[in-house]
Specification:
homodimer; mainly alpha; Four Helix Bundle (Hemerythrin (Met), subunit A); 2 domains; two-stranded antiparallel ribbon; 2 strands; DNA-binding
DNA sequence: GTCAAGCCGATTGTCTGACAATCTTCATAT
DNA sequence: ATATGAAGATTGTCAGACAATCGGCTTGAC
């Protein structure tokens, strides 16, 4: 078999990645909540055709990252505090369960991985880079969710966290939030490392509750 | 203002409903797990164009009701027992929480509604119409989830239940499953009616566990 | 001046038709 | 029997079109 030279003169524009680009743009807060997304504009910006764009938009709609109102088109939904609260509550349910399970079954190897991500967050927390803080914190949870033994738990969790990504950056930049977050995460880590299910659940619950409180504060302040 | 005669000679084919049609087709088991969905065929069957169909398919893909493999197109995913188990476990988490909350906050009016749906299931259970059984049972949960005070809980639950709809018809047709299901549901209802949160949680947990067991049996039997 | 009616541009919903890239299948040759 | 290769089927993507609908603006009436 001849080696795959991977030389593609005109690669069919791989717009399987269009969804990812758009998702990232939404995460990074490029669009204001409530603002409309004009299809023709997005097409030129992304360099794809309207049918392709609309496919991507349907995916995002199903993920609840955008809303599509008939005859008005896609827009960024304004997240009410009521819905945000509901999301935090379900997140609590899922994370607590995942942390508890994780404590009982995580492998030494993955535990080291978790420790590394905690260190990464520690470093980010001592800086003022709130984007790095959010990213490393997300890594930490991801590892827990990925090792809880239930792929659905992970999948649902990811979907929910995506919807409140808007808050996360804001609340993390609250005075002292990163540091207290670090302490909470360390406690979760210690409990999991010790294989103490109950402690892991308790610590995890505390963490989500405090994150929720921080989000509420930053929202009330209209940050 | 002239009255809206609602006379549309050529109504723009409302294919906002295309997704619903397809979803229903999948629920009712019209497609075999693992079978491919040919776009051109679906287009003619549904009477819509390919771009429109592909939008609908993207929505279903995001709901995990179909899979789309690049260059192979959409297909019905074969649900492994491993994934099904994971779904049942998360369902347990959500339903238990919802039942518990419901017990504390449901209005008398909604309680009557719940009782009615229980009666409907009772009637279906005494018949042999397993489709009616599944539908009325789904109604019962829906009412609980809709009244638990957390819309996200409901939303996530609906998404998960959709993915195991394939099993539900099968396991409900197991000898005696409908009757024992009825007993379990009655216990959930009684607990909620009594405002007993703990009992509601316990009964709900039992119910999901038994449903899971029934699903496993019917799957092992290859029904 | 305020409010209603109606018009106009902007945008969406949907279709048709096209074509290259890729996968499948089957026949052929070694 | 296996590898090769060619034909057909299917997907990925685009361009262009047009009616339906929405939002805002102008106009006109009171």
């Amino acid at each position: 078999m001849p080696p795959d030279l991977n030389l593609r003169i005109s690669p069919r524009t791989v717009q399987r990645e269009t969804v990812d680009k758009l998702r990232l743009a939404i995460f990074s807060g490029l669009f204001q909540p409530g603002s409309r997304l004009i299809e023709s504009q997005l097409c030129t910006q992304l360099g794809i055709s309207r049918p392709s764009l609309r496919e991507a938009l349907r995916s995002l709609e199903a993920e609840r990252l955008i809303e599509i109102v008939p005859n008005r088109g896609p827009s960024i939904p304004a997240l009410s505090w009521e819905v945000a609260t509901a999301i935090y509550e379900v997140r609590e349910l899922l994370e607590v369960e995942a942390a508890g399970r994780c404590a009982l079954r995580i492998s030494p190897e993955q535990l080291r991985e978790l420790e590394k991500s905690l260190s990464a967050f520690e470093e980010a927390a001592s800086s003022n880079d709130s984007l790095a803080q959010v990213m490393t914190a997300a890594d930490f949870y991801s590892i827990i969710l990925a090792n809880c033994g239930n792929p659905i738990l992970e999948e649902v969790h990811r979907g929910l966290v995506a919807r409140i990504s808007f808050f996360r950056g804001r609340s993390m930049s609250l005075e002292g939030r990163a540091q207290s977050s670090l302490a909470e995460m360390r406690e979760i880590f210690e409990s999991i490392a010790a294989g103490d299910e109950k402690a892991a659940r308790k610590a995890s619950k505390q963490h989500v509750l405090r994150a929720k409180a921080a989000a509420k504060i930053s929202m009330d302040n209209g940050i």
